[in-house]
Amino acid sequence: MTHPPDKMQKIAVFSVSAGAGHVRAAQALQATAEKWYPGVEVVHIDLMELVPKLFKAIYADTYIKVVEHHPAFWGYLYDKTDREKVDSALSRLRVAVERLNTQKLTKVLRELAPDHVICTHFLPAQLLSRKVRKGTFSKPVWVQVTDFDVHALWLHDRMSGYFAANDEVAWRMAERGIPAATIHVTGIPIMPVFAEPPSRCKSATEFNLDPNRKTLLLMAGGAGIGGIGELAERLLRLDRDFQVVALAGRNEKLLATLQELAGRHPRRLFPLGFTRVIERVMAASDLAITKPGGLTTSECLAMGLPMVVVSPIPGQEERNADFLLENGAALKACDAGALAYRVAKLLDEPKELAMLRRNAERLGKPNAARSVLDTVLGLGGGEPRS
């Protein structure tokens, strides 16, 4: 059981809204503190709210457009920046631009006066590393890597500690010069509800699903494999007994398309818009079809939900997919036909599906956020690397 600190503590968690995962990890730390740490206040700050609109458009919005429409180019950039020397011209230019556009950071730190800082994105870690090195900020700064991989942009000196998704990421951090004693294997922070999964039967009933039928959770389409509507239609052509929950999020046009398709496949397709209870949908499911983002896959693993991963972004998502495949918690589909084949095979061979589930359960770290906060507050937590 977590014991509260001796005095009120304030933790500032800095994320960047370039993709949802960094923000969700920060929100998970905040929610976990509210639930389990009565003597701790966690304040979440999106660094993109502190920079000029032009910089935000270039830094965050452009990232999203590149990974969606030019994934191969993003993969090239990911590999190049992972190999580039710290003193390269590109690195010096990036540092100059970032310094120019993040002047409000100093003001926010002064106003908040946090006892600790946790970064769930490499940009605030980079900026704070510079401040610690110059002596303009003296509080502990911790870094939470949000994928099953580590990129050079995350690694900076003068950090109090690093939180890794698994032993391999911790090993690679040490190989790149991070002091081993400061690296802690905690997993990736996810919301506390994933540590208390609801029952399958109750969850299925909530979404009008049959708890006794195999249930596929369709969460992703993408470049090269097709959108969710196309994937749902292809899966529904399989001559097997199953039902599909297809998530449309806030995309009303997609939701309407799925609803029209559901009308042609009654009691087989269940479209769902934006939901704040994804853990209940997962609890009712037997297999997730998803892109391998760090947060989404961590949620699935915590629920013991096996995956078929599709459309990984070159770079971090490909590394996440490799981790899942190597550890037997997922299969990978390169196109819609391959997806249909994988799903049919798993439905025909329940022992293989059960094996994937056991491996997912083994890898899951539902209490990662508590491990992080325990470590930051000096209450124990993730094991340091030796």
Features:
13 strands, 16% strand, 386 residues, six-stranded parallel sheet, alpha/beta, single chain, 47% helix, seven-stranded mixed sheet
Number of helices: 16
User: How confident is the prediction overall: mean pLDDT?
Assistant: 88
Derived structural class? alpha/beta
Q: Report the principal-axis shape.
A: globular
Question: How widely separated are the two ends?
Answer: 26 Å
Give the neighbour order of strands across the main sheet.
2-1-3-4-5-6-13
Helix fraction?
40-55%
Give the low-pLDDT segments: 221-225
Give, in order, the helices and strands: EHEHHHHEHEEHEHEHEHEHEHEHEHHHE
- In terms of DSSP E residues, the strand content is 15-25%
Q: Report the biggest beta sheet as strand number plus sense, adding barrel if it closes.
A: 7 strands, mixed
Radius of gyration: 21 Å
Number of strands: 13
